[in-house]
Amino acid sequence: MTVPILKQGDYLIALVQSALSDADLLKLRDDLAERVGMFRARGVIVDVTALDVIDSFATRTISTIAHMLKLRGAETVIVGIQPDVAFAMVQLGLTLEGVGTVLDLEEGLEFLDRRTRD
Amino acid sequence: MAGTALVSAARIEIRTDADIVAARQAGRSLAERIGFSGSDLTVIAAAISEVARNIVEYASEGHLELSRIVQSPATGVLVVARDTGPGIADVEKALLDGYSTRNSLGMGLPGARRLMDEFEVASAIGAGTTVTMKKWLR
Question: In total, how many domains does chain A have?
């Protein structure tokens, strides 16, 4: 299941629409790294509202995506982690340290506006 | 164990990362049929994801058995993950947060243990690993 990536001004928005396998997550990572360069994007929003589980591999990959894109000159913010998913992540001992996380798409755009302003 | 009834619901072969997704979806839907709801469904699916991933990463082949378990008056879900891989040399160490023999977070097994009510690992070098975990309906 390929994750569609939309362009919105200087930002890219990756809309996860269903459960992702490990391979899908790695493809998302590679697609974003490539497109940040292609579109000279300053910020990336990854919308995970549709994910019903974020396990250790997904956490590691999301973290890698944020750090990779930072090296490519773009800020990343994760939006839409569901309450049950957050609960399970805490129980699993998973954290997204150093990765911006906000409630929804709207806040994600504000987050990127603040981060990329200067 | 007297008074324990098992209704086997599904057996899922685990070979690739796509099977991990299938396993956690099957687990979630069984848990829902048993009567779990809300965060319990996510918790069960996440635990299944971790034990299934262990099979793919370390054993390359194995399977999961998902069952409804009744130990009157309690009802719950039983997940047994079996592989015939290399086995775990030090089970206690494998259950420590942050311990991994691969380049992973090392949160899989200890994390899954925290998510479930009961959790056991039986492993023998060269013979494989069996993870048995249960979550009771409250």
Answer: 1
Q: Which of residues 11 through 50 in chain A touch B, CB cutoff 8 A?
A: 19-23
CATH code for position A61: 3.30.750.24
Tell me the chain A residues in contact with residue B50 when contact means C-beta distances shorter than 8 Å. 55-56, 92
Please state the pTM of the whole predicted model.
0.91
Structural domains in chain B, sorted by start: 4-136 (3.30.565.10)
Please give the ipTM for the structure prediction. Answer: 0.89
Which neighbouring-strand residues pair with B27?
none
> What pLDDT was estimated at residue B93?
86
Q: Residue B132: helix, strand or coil by DSSP?
A: strand
Q: Distance, in angstroms, between A56 CA and closest chain B CA?
A: 6
Identify any residues that bridge with B12 across adjacent strands, giving them in sequence order.
B64
